[in-house]
UniProtKB/TrEMBL annotation, chains A, B:
Sorted UniProt keywords: ATP-binding, Cytoplasm, Ligase, Nucleotide-binding, Pantothenate biosynthesis
Organism of this sequence: Alkaliphilus peptidifermentans DSM 18978
Annotated compartments: Cytoplasm
Source organism, top-level taxon: Bacteria
Cited Gene3D superfamilies: HUPs (3.40.50.620), Pantoate-beta-alanine ligase, C-terminal domain (3.30.1300.10)
Top EC class for this record: ligase
Gene Ontology process terms (BP): pantothenate biosynthetic process
Name listed for the protein in its UniProt record: Pantothenate synthetase
GO MF assignments: ATP binding; pantoate-beta-alanine ligase activity
Record text on subunit structure and interactions: Homodimer.
Gene name per UniProt: panC
Amino acid sequence: MHIVSTVKDMRQVIREVKVENNTLGFVPTMGYLHEGHLSLIKRAKLENDIVIVSIFVNPTQFGANEDYDIYPKDFKRDKQLAETAGADYVFYPTVEEMYPTGYKTSVDVSEITDRLCGASRPGHFKGVTTIVNKLFNIVEPNRAYFGLKDAQQVAVIQQMVKDLFMNVEVIPCSIVRESDGLAMSSRNVYLTQQDRSAALILSKSLMKAKKIINEGERDLKIIRNTIIESISKEAPVSVEYIEIIQFPSLEKIDILEGKVLIALAAKVGRVRLIDNVILEVQK
Amino acid sequence: MHIVSTVKDMRQVIREVKVENNTLGFVPTMGYLHEGHLSLIKRAKLENDIVIVSIFVNPTQFGANEDYDIYPKDFKRDKQLAETAGADYVFYPTVEEMYPTGYKTSVDVSEITDRLCGASRPGHFKGVTTIVNKLFNIVEPNRAYFGLKDAQQVAVIQQMVKDLFMNVEVIPCSIVRESDGLAMSSRNVYLTQQDRSAALILSKSLMKAKKIINEGERDLKIIRNTIIESISKEAPVSVEYIEIIQFPSLEKIDILEGKVLIALAAKVGRVRLIDNVILEVQK
């Protein structure tokens, strides 16, 4: 496995890879890899000749009071994990490489970025679409793999790719969970032991909602309240949002039907976590 | 020469062209081709194996009170001119093809889009960068050719390409002028005979400015006033802006030195025209 740190070198690799007509799978990450990321790399390796993983903590998608400065990093460990999972190249640029002095261009998706995480993290998705656009242009992948833990991110990137006619297939991949149900996240490392335990209520409440829908419940208020009541039992957990919406359009729904996303964000102690479940609902 | 009207068909053409390792030159236009456009097509043909010309009057770069609805069109004539100049394909999509229902994504370059034409045409360059980004993603050209009559547009697109790491070389091409000096423009067709004559003062005043600079004048106020006084003699001409700035940074200058752009916009009768001159100035 090779480490590439400049755009110029990455382009050279891509040129060589493409000459031989290899297909190229791409897994953009912010590093501190966990089983969720590794599942993306493994799938990319199954479906493509060459796999490129990027590790870049993107400053423009963090708000002023967020955790950019303390975002967990362990490049040595990431390198080993990526290689074992099947990565051929790791793209590991500096901030200056991705945002050279005097940069002025941004890519923005409107409307569907205003809600859910976008409501409490203004500018977050603009940062995400801008960096993903840059990375796609550098790597020119055939397929790019994203975890569905951030379902809104998947929807936003799919919208950008469609609208700008980018020549890449975005492949959403299932959430990977710890054995007790907690969705894998690089931020889980921030949790105290007590909060780690309380955080379980997030996945549990979503599974409960899924269960009552599968049993026939169609009243949005009842479903929402079931989640809220379930979470309210855990003192360290404060809900930021719970949304039941269409996926991937992220449109509000009145009647539960079709592909439905139940997404939530909550603070567990001082750590902001997200989780969701997507289900196919018959009317 | 082939006419292609859908993104899907265009992609298919590109795939075929690329398999044979042909280089691809691209000339994006809004149609109603004149000698300026044809010079771009001819140059593209000289420097590439295959030339694609797009003809698309982009609605998102027109303001509410501008001339989108009456923008001149003559596809039959354009087709013949493009073919004679050396185009292999004309990409001629509908508005619905380029902006399908529900599109939400835009590409924006900040700061350098606020001045010159950007000041009086808010949103104009956002429309330009968004459509050019789409077109670049569809056509995947090696080189793209733009006329320097809209020098700001060239600077903005170069900035976008650099910032987003787009894999295309932007090639600025000299302004083509009528024998009497008027810069070629599709909008010249709007001019009455009287206004056509008055419009000559734009290029004349720029040439005058160039002359006095070449003769040693370095005082920005004097140069600017020379242009203003020259233009003020023509009653139907009202100046929108005259700017003397660095190119391609479009930064304000205190001292005339290096690559300098003198750009102006004016209404001639009811027609808005732009013109400029770029010169290399020794201190």
